[in-house]
Amino acid sequence: MKRFAIVDLETTGNASAKGDRIIEIGIVVIEEGGKVVEEFSSLVYPEKEIPPFIRSLTGIDDEDVLDAPLFSEIAEDVYPLFQHAYIVAHNIEFDLGFLNDELKRCGYQPLHNPIIDTVEFARILLPTSPTFKLGQLAERLEMGHDRPHRALSDAQVTADLFVYLMNKLQGLPERTLQYLLKIESRLKSDFREFFDRYLDEKRYGNIKDTDTVIKHGIAVRKQIPERKKTSVQLPVFDSWKDQVYKGENGLQSLLTNYEYREGQSKMTDHVQRAFREGRHAIVEAGAGTGKSVAYLLSAAYTAMKDSKRVIISTHTTSLQKQLLEEEIPKIERMFPRPIKAVIYKGKSHYISLTHFHYELENSYQDNYDIALTKAMILVWLTRTRTGDVDEIQLPSNGRQFWHKVSSEQSSKTLQLGYTDDSFFHWAQEKALQADLVITNHALFCMDIMKEETVLPEYDHVIIDEAHHLEAVASRYFGVRMDYRELQRHLTQFGEVFHKSLYKGFFLPNDMFTNLSKGQQTIDEAKEELSQLSRYIYQNVKKQSQLGKGKSDIGRTQWLLKRDEMPSFMNTAKEMSHRFLAKIKKLILQMEKIELELKAQLAVNEDHGIPILLARLDNQIDVCQKIHSQLIHYFDFTRDEEVKWMEIEGEGAANAIYLFSEPVNIASMLNHRLFNKKQSVILTSATLSTNNSFSYIRRSLGIEEGHNTLEAIIPSPYDYKKQVQLMVPNDFPNIKKEPEAFIEALSEAIYSVAQVTKGRMLVLFTSYEMLRKTYLLLKEFIDPEEFMIFAQGVSSGSRDRLKKNFQAFDQAILLGTSSFWEGVDIPGDDLSCLMMVRLPFQPPDQPVQSIRDERMKKEGKNSFMEKSLPHAIIRFKQGFGRLIRSSTDKGVVFICDQRLIEARYGKYFLSSLPKVPVSYESTKRLINEIENWL
After folding, report:
1. Measured distance CA(372)–CA(378) in Å, rounded
2. Motif DEAH box located where (predicted)?
């Protein structure tokens, strides 16, 4: 019977090579099936001090280990536990590395047993887990873990996790195990014996798998056939709505703590009326209105009653998931049949089974990341209903592999003689039968922009988080290119010129000559791209020394104007043409391979040929898109676009970004959206400025003649009792004394944090100021008092920073652009929101500055018509971060005296709910906060 020695160590740091040592060891020895046969645990004297971070993480301090044995004194007890056993650990390289270093030091032979890493094992068997940290896995799988970061407790939980994963492995289909066996040699862990055994059980045990089917040679979860949607008889809307909101069998019978909200009911009315009368509507619904439920009720009612499809577009994927998994199930029982709702995404999100099967059959050149990615996808396919990449946590290089196997590659499958009836096709089928199709603004804008449609046909659309529509549409009607992305494409183009792909085909010799030339052309294209990028980088850097603007994430920006710097423009254009000549040459070389493969297809039934043809076809499309976009970008005869370049100030000397956006997105949206669809509902918590929608109408092209319904629904929260707004009157003038301002700001952050016990979100409008403030705070704040996290400085995504902030009792989070909205930190985790400046866009932002110029020429006041309303909407978004429920309470602290002293300050204040405002010295305000909280 197999034995497994599960080990966990606590150490003074991450690197035994740098002198870090073990401070605690825990070992659990189990037999197959999970029976524990032995346990061992001991503190270890490390012969050095334990650092503060390790002390706080483990709870082990120097006094605890003072009387503990040296490792050499317990080695004779530890070593035999590993004999004739698999060694198992969560991140095995770490534990085994430390263990073998200590054993060698004591004169023992290092351990060379077979190993299993439970991080790798969990990644393969639990591919959709949002995290693979031991504590979080234990919590998700409800495994008791009473003492995290203590060796024996961690080893016990690792043992439980290992047994759980072994059971999961045993349940996999035969075909999945076959492919895992092909990949096994590239993985860290020694799984072969178990893959073999479970495969034999499946083959000879006559165990029928009823949950999966074989599609394109791969075991895939059975799809539930899509039933056609039917229209249903529904009561008259008004009486039905009253039943839903006020009746005994309505929402109150389903939801605990349900409260009737008049604003929610009104919003349902407005949306329904717009649908019924074929009108557009703008509805601002304050925080806590319950706007998702309000508009979903109307959308589902209309879809079912009239057998119509309603599109719902959101800005964030988190809101899409929330609608599908939380909000729609809440209201479904209000209807006579289930609501058919789907999330619909672009082709690149869905896996193509034919392309994945091709990659599985050609695994001989895989590196570790590719092998791990394939193993994860194989297991995931036995469980997913959608085939959507967002469900699975791929390793860092797995994204590159995904491009090869996504449905983007299968654009012309039918012409090539094979069908790829997999996930994208199923997603289309489901969308055609759906009442509600939930998508994102990006795909929605792509659909309006393209001649051939991306989304299924619709007349009614609800655009939630509609304050983002202008920015997203501008992006999709413009150009976005960058050096790294172009390099990635070139590397991918290179793959179709690998000679190994064409092994076994009887191809003429000049075809292999063409392959070598293709590889050479790619190298030349990379060199031309690098020279172009370096040239642009150097010129933008020169401009930055003249004090040019910075983007909100700290990149240097340079606006291109037709009559400025003609020599730079001409040289850059000429260099881009040299690069594009290589792209043209690549297209011709790919087309030659295509012709040869099509000739082969007539005489050769190899299933790989259509796959290679589909990929070539896709690569040629990408080449043509790059060609047309760059030609367009360097055509300076057009006045209707804003073009600019960005560089990473500290980045590589060719890290460049090229952008263009239309100056007037409003007329495009008017023409392609509002004039074409029966009813477009725009909603968000922040659409009005000064109680008017004129700004949003102008920005999005909703003409007065559109006969639009409008409504502002106030929040039900009691802001007077829940919020205090405070403005210090003694900050230095930021224009005259920028350094003194940052010092005053840092002191205010620290003083307020002492009163609020951290739990502070500080919002900046400038990345540069955020960075300087962070560095100053780090100088005088002890990390044992407050943890400080800063966007763009501390590592991690926005969500990761938010989670880290919430994980510490006393923390301060500094954020720029994306933290002004969409970040939910409810309850006691957030007590103070500080805004450093009113969120005006810097006047030198490219799109802003060109629009300002245009408006001045037209005799308009760009400040009052564009800059001010845009800043007010951002301000309302920022303010909305603080109060996320009726029980939240906190302080909004705004370090910008313009709010009180400038003429336009009143417009900001009048756009907020009524809250008490204090304008005093910083010291007095801090006393007020202390008394109030």
Report:
1. 10
2. 464-467
- 26 annotated ligand-binding residue: no
Q: Cα-flanking dihedrals φ and ψ of residue 348, to 5°?
A: -65, -15
CA distance 646 to 648: 7
Q: Model confidence over 56-94: pLDDT tens digits? A: 788 888 888 889 999 999 999 999 999 999 999 999 999
705 is in an annotated binding site: no
Query: Residue 893 — φ and ψ, nearest 5°?
Result: -115, 115
The answer as to whether 397 is a domain residue is: no
439 annotated as ligand-binding: no
Q: How many angstroms separate the CA atoms of 322 and 345, rounded?
A: 16
290 marked ligand binding residue: yes
Terminal Cα distance for the chain, rounded: 63
189 labeled binding residue: no
Cα–Cα–Cα angle for 364, 365, 368, rounded to 5 degrees: 105
The total number of structural domains that make up the chain: 3
Q: Are residues 747 and 645 in the same domain?
A: no
Question: Which of 127, 150, 170 is the last residue in one of the domains?
Answer: 170
**CB neighbourhood size of 417 (10 A):** 10
Count of CB atoms within 10 A of residue 363's CB?
15
Positive or negative, the CA dihedral 29, 35, 37, 43 is positive
- Cβ atoms of 668 and 662 within 8 Å: the answer is yes
Positive or negative: CA dihedral 209, 213, 218, 220: negative
**CA-wise closest residue to 321 among 297, 350, 342, 294:** 342
* DSSP at 224: P
H/E element holding 267?
helix 262-277
Same domain, 140 and 71: yes
114: three-class secondary structure by DSSP? coil
Three-class SS state of 308:
coil
Residue that the structure tokens 């993480």 belong to:
57
Give me the CATH number covering residue 816: 3.40.50.300
Query: 135 is in which domain, residue-wise?
Result: 3-170
Asked whether residue 628 falls in the same domain as residue 742, the answer is no
Tell me: pLDDT of 437 over 90: yes
847 vs 23 pLDDT, higher one? 23
Give domain status of residue 288, yes or no.
no
Query: What are the residues whose beta carbons fall under 8 Å from the beta carbon of 61, sequence distance 6 or more?
Result: 50, 55
Sign of CA dihedral 763, 764, 769, 770: positive
Are residues 648 and 725 both part of a single domain? no
Q: Which of 662, 690, 710 is the last residue of a domain?
A: 662
Closest by Cα among 667, 728, 659 to 698: 667
Question: Is residue 816 domain-resident?
Answer: yes
Q: Is 292 annotated as a binding residue?
A: yes
Instruction: Encode 82-101 in three state secondary structure.
Output: HCCCEEEECCHHHHHHHHHH
| Residue 547 annotated in ligand binding | no
Q: How far apart are CA 643 and CA 620, in angstroms?
A: 26
pLDDT tens digits, 219-240: 999 988 777 777 788 899 999 9
Would the pLDDT of 269 be above 50?
yes
Nearest by Cα to 325 from 468, 438, 226: 438
**Average of pLDDT values for 328-357?**
93
* Residue 386 assigned ligand-binding role: no
Confidence class for position 412, pLDDT limits 50, 70, 90: low
837: left (phi over 0), alpha (psi -120 to 50) or beta: beta
- Give the pairing type, strands 641-647 and 556-560: antiparallel
The answer to whether position 181 is within a domain reads: no
Residue 779's Cα: distance from chain center in Å?
Answer: 32
- Helix (H) / strand (E) element for 690: namely none
351 burial level (CB within 10 Å; 0-12, 13-18, 19+): buried
